Request: fold
Amino acid sequence: MRTAGRTARLIVAAVVFGLLVVGAFKGSDDDFPLGPFRMYATSSQATGQVAVVALQMKTEGSDWTLVRPSPESVGMNVAEFEGQLPRFEDDPDLLGAVAASRSALHPDEPAWTDLRIVRQATLVVDKVPTGDVVESVVAEWSADRSIDGEGS
Reply:
C-alpha cells in the first residue's frame, strides 16, 4: 500500500474514533451509532416505583376490564399506543377513535362505551416488588359524554 493510502486510512480512522469518543460523552440515543444507545446501559434505582400504563374499557353494563392494545384488538400495537400517550393526555376524546377502531375490527362484539388509560405504579424496595400498586387515571373517555356534545 502506498503512503498516501495509509495516510488517508489513518485520517479516516482518527476521525471515526474521534466521533465515537465525542459521541460517548456528549451524544444521545439519536446519534447512534456514533453516540450511546442507553436502552440497556443504565440500571434502575433499588427502591422506587416501576410504572406501566394500561388501557381499560367498559361495555354497556360491565365493569372496567384490562385490554392489551394490539393490531387485532384496536388496530395499533402497544408501542404505537404508548407513543400516543401525550396526545391522549392532551385530548382524551381521541380515545373515542380507539373505541371506533375496535368496533370496526369487531362489529359482532359489544361496543366499548368507556375507555381510560391508567398508570399503574408498583412500589419496589431493594429491587423487590412489594405488591403495593398505585393507580392513577391518565385519560378517560365516555361515549355518553361524546353524544351529549362535550367531546368528539
About this structure: The chain has two domains: 3-40, 48-147. Residues 148-152 have pLDDT under 50 and may be disordered. The helical segments are 3-26, 78-83, 85-90, 95-105, 143-147. The CA atoms of residues 44 and 127 lie 9 Å apart.
